[in-house]
Amino acid sequence: LFAVQGxxxxxxxxxxxxxxxxxxxxxxxxxxxxxxxxxxxxxxTGYTGAGGFEIYCPAADxxxxxxxxxxxxxxxxxxxxxxxxxxxxxxxxxFCLYGNDIDDSTSPLExxxxxxxxxxxxxxxxxxxxxxxxxGVTRKLxxxxxxxxxxxxxxxxxxxxxxxxxxxxxxxxxxxLLGQGIGLGYVETAFSKPGSEIFISVRGKGLxxxxxxxxxxx
Length: 218
Prior knowledge:
The chain is about 15% helix and about 30% strand. By secondary structure, the chain is α+β, with helices and mostly antiparallel strands.
């Protein structure tokens, strides 16, 4: 899989396929030729919030496809970017990362994913989730921005203004775009409204932060 992301991705990739990429809707895909390789999946998806496509090809053709992408994008100054940069971009958008923000100890309702949790038919744990929906969740996943200078990190405690633990950070970093620390974390529902004042415990000191709507760069 190659994720080619950014506002110029479509124009670069269109040089390599006869598939009309402009006709592939967001979160949809098409199968066709790409860089001389047949039956490649071209998906209008990504994990950066910057737009772009994900290319699924056979492993045997990966090197060929890699070089074709970089040749097609050389005039646009295309660069290979690692997971650290991708993680910052997805966090600025408020996208969940499995293993951090969601896992088998969280529910989609707590994580704000109720929009993809439909109860039209039974599914794994649907009965328990239906009860949770009816009774209401006791914690919610929220985005936040640091007010005090500091960088939140995974598993840091989230406190109220009296120093009581009300949750924990699930993802955190320094946003290059905003120039401040940002993060996601679960907090008690009473502290989940945008604008709520919270504190992040960093090296034993409570640093002020504010619950914010996602995308955090919006």
